[in-house]
Design a protein that fits this description.
single chain; 85 residues; mainly alpha; 0% strand
Amino acid sequence: MNDPLIDVSSNTSLYEAWYAAGRPIELHLYAKGGHGFGLISQGLPSDGWIDRLSEWLGAKGFSHVRRYRNDTMDQHRANKTLLRP
């Protein structure tokens, strides 16, 4: 929760509002990772956020979401290549 750009209470408020409305919602707060780190591997638990999103979307029936490992994304960025389906 070391994100200087977003106050954690805005996330918890959004979660509470969606939950109260009976909408599907899940909230993961990570102690470290910052803001806007995307898919860059930092050796932190937050590195797996995209996998958690993919799992959640899959569980909700959005099964066409692709999962990419962070090291694969880093490799493609380093090589300045694009991921292709």
